[in-house]
Model the fold of this input.
Amino acid sequence: MKMDNLKVQEDKLYLDGQEFKLLSGAIHYFRVPRANWRRSLFNLKALGFNTVETYTAWNLHEPRAGEFDFTGQLDLGAFIKLAQELGLNVIVRPSPYICAEWEFGGLPAWLLNLQGVRLRANDPTYLACVECYYRELFKILVPLQRSHGGPIMMMQIENEYGSYGEDKAYLRSIKALMEKLGVDVPLFTADGAWRATLRAGSLLEDNVLATGNFGSHAKENFAQMRAYQAELGVKQPLLCMEFWDGWFSRWGKPVVKRDQAELLDALREVLLLGEGVNLYMFHGGTNFGFMNGCSARLEHDLSQITAYDYGAPLNEVGDPTPTYFMIQDLIHELYPELKQATPLYSQKIERLQIPLSHKTSLFGNLHHVTSRTDSQYPQTMETVGQFYGYLLYRTHIERDTLATEKLRVIDARDRVQVYVEEQHEKTQYQEEIGAPIEVKLPQKYNQLDILVENMGRVNYGSKLTAQTQQKGIRTGVMVDLHFVSDWQQYALDLSKLAQLDYKRPYLQQTPSFYKYTFDLAKTGDCYLDLTHFGKGVALLNGHNLGRFWQVGPQLALFCPASFFEVGKNEIVIFETEGKYCDTIDLVKEPIYKQLRSEQ
Done:
């Protein structure tokens, strides 16, 4: 049954002929295990809200050019239909770029292999890739619009474009493409609320709804939005598309926390002065796998942690926090007619002292868990098709002196670990890369291994370009004053862990695999305590739980109940520093390290 689309009439919203107050919360289907979608959406509805908002992640749906996936965890259509079943409207932000503290802002890394491509611009090569993706994406979204009986009532053209460019031809190309593919619900842009970003990133001059992103000072921000509307002679409803109720955290930095009383005052102001709000985030979830983003800095980029808890009303697991109940009380105070409900909680389990069953070094298993390419000079990760994770570079170097020799890795990202004859020599990170490494070569001919980790591409700012975000060794490796030739690249494939040969030697202080097996009588949510490990990733029954790092602040990884099995289970930890423990624990609460702000 068709329903009326959302109507934008001057400074008001109307839905099905009635004035409409937008009360929305952000839940990213790709950050929340599919088995937990219903609980998260129910808890949003129980708050008294009427809408859920989500981005779509291009890099997940098209991991390789022309190869699409909208199944299982990525079944966007199922998520939207579930929201409708629970009585929620849906806002979809399908823009090619999403920021979201997500790897490369959601752009697929294979774009970096396209010669001369300019991202987020009216570039024919880039737009052709977007259209290929959109033709598949909108086969799902168009039938789920309100005009077709679905719950989708708004869609976004681009995301915070005014903080990146001012190419209005590009914005109009994206808009035209969406309309060509059948989009008929209202379109909008979302930007910072000041004039420069609104001028550069909105299509207000085309009367496209321009919304603002901010976390406080609603009176001032809405006044700036209203002033720019008046400058162009239009009048639109004042909407905060991203009300930042918390913030994300980075490795090596303290967890960012927001004062709850201040948050509540800021939210009250938005609700009283505007026509709608979208809480960013309502449920943050988890950056599973290698999908964490990175904050760009002049020299030392800051990778974001695996948890995307965000200090949101629902925590990483999806349970209500004190913030949830404060907001629920505020909604009841301002809108007593709205129906609310008691929220749902997850079931927790605990399992301590799970013993280590096997361990083995990466070096002895290269042919089991990698794919190999050969080249004269080192190739970037993207060139060999290893878009995320780890790439091991191997060559052999001849000894020219009995004294120490200087080795330099030229222009590599993000973190390199150098081994000579499988002995660790040096670890370098970002601004250290390129500095001389003094090594004493033990033999006439020596095996040189360099493990490079992509710690996440930037998701925002001036470094979000095809020229800056290639990973791996981007130029070469020098010994003395010359570049070394004849390289083998081994791309680590964590889907091949079943092929590990644990009879191969374990070498101390080398990247290695640690296997733990155990039985469960029942499943539940928990956290994997990695306090005694150095750096790496952990996999539960083949599911990549994400990165861990002893520098903190996060010291445990979320293990969703749906990743476990009743009966036998397996955890494999790939650790790169040679630090491990003979037992591991599954605990009920997250573990965070207290860090000082000056770190």
Notes: The mean pLDDT is 97. Residues 124-141 form the longest helix (18 residues).
